[in-house]
Structure formats: C-alpha cells, structure tokens
Amino acid sequence: AAPARPAAGDGFLDLVNSVRAAAGSPPVAHDARLAGAAREHAGMMARGGRLGVEGVDGVSVHQRVVAAGYPYLTVGEHLVSGPLTVDRFVDHCLRHDAARRTVCDPSFTHAAVGSCDGSGDLYWTALWASPLTPDGLSRTTGEVIELTNRERARAGLPPLSHDPLLTAAAQAHSADMVARDFYSHTAPDGGRPWDRAAAAGSARRTIGENIACGQRSAAEVVQGWMNSPGHRANILKAGFTHIGVGFAGGGRAGTYWTQLFGG
User: Which residues contact 119 (CB under 8 A, 6 or more apart)?
Assistant: First the structure.
C-alpha cells in the first residue's frame, strides 16, 4: 500500500514536524499502513484496559506494523492513555526525554497516530519508522561490523572481514526469529549456528554467534554485546577472522540482530 495523506483535521504531523524542524531533523510523512497499525493497536489497548507493546490479542505493535505491509529498518512507538486531544498527546510525549528523542530522531521518515476510547480513557499509539531497503540494510549491518572492529582494534586484534556466506546465514536467522516467533541460538527445528553456516555454504572450521533483540541501532546493539561477557568474548576472540551480520524488524521485540563469526 502506498503512503496516503492524513485525514483532514489531523494536526499530528504539523505538531511533530514543527518540533523536528526546531531540532534540525527532516520532516516525517504520513503513512497509511502505519496509521492502520496504530489504530488497531490503540483499539486493542482500549479493549484490554491497559497500555502495552503486546495487545490482548497476543500481537505486538511491531508485528502489526509488518502485517500492515510496512517492513522497517528503524521503528519507534509511543503508547499513552489519558490525553483527550492530539495536541495534548504530543505535549505529553515532549515532556519526557526518551519520547522527545523519538519524536526528533532524524532516521525516521514516516509517522502516524491512532486513538481509541476505552472505559472512559483515550488510548493512543504513535508509530515512527523508516522502510527497509537493501541499501539501508547494508548500511546498518556494515555499521555493526565497523563498530565490532573498533572494539577489536582497542584490544589489539585484527579486524574481521565481511563474509557473504556468513552474512546470508546471519540474515536468515534474524528473519527466521521474526517469522517463527522465537529468540534462541537453536531454531525450532533444532538447527544451530554451525548448521546454518554450513547450509549457507560456509566452510569455516570455527563458528560463533551473538544474537540480540529490541535494540534500535547498531551502536546500541554492539554496546549491549560488549557489556555481556559471553558476547564480548566472541567479539574479541582472536581465532575469528570473518563475520556476517543479519537484521530483521518485527516480532515481539521489534528488532532481531545476529552476528555470525567464523575462523
């Protein structure tokens, strides 16, 4: 579905784009797919009488975005109850530092808002996203490799080389975690990292894997791995010489990352 103009009288974009302009960020455009997902999620929160990334139907807001036909590279959400008008909703978001950062994030290109009345409370969902493109995916996974190699350089280790076969296996695992709704090094059919590497055609003798979910940027995910002893050990393992990185948006956590190492 193609992006569409917001409904007449919807002042959401005017409000948020004014704030973005003041912060030096480009404007966001309305997207009908995001609007549909936002309305649906607001309705589910109203039906359940509570805020949550997952609705009473067991579907996450991120799953709704992908199901609406918007595969994304970056995503953000505001889930709020109480404000009675869109300007009060936006004002509420701007009073919180993390929410304001989302409003002003220059990586987002589209946004939409939806609301639904539930037992006297108005429930709001605002969605922010940029679409998944081959170039965007390549930039993001390349940034993960660059940041990983910076950590290795600090430790006096040589950089890892990009490996297309490990990349294919890592990307397939991230996509599989979204598609089959799991988060593990072991797939539902029992496949392990070395199985996936071999299936992609890799002949690397030593294989290691880091996975993560929920992080919204390459910098955030690499920092998270470096703060975890087991993941850090993979990144700084001297015996690894090559790397592939995968990323997929959707699922319950919103983002799924895979690093596959080979030596």
Answer: 46, 49
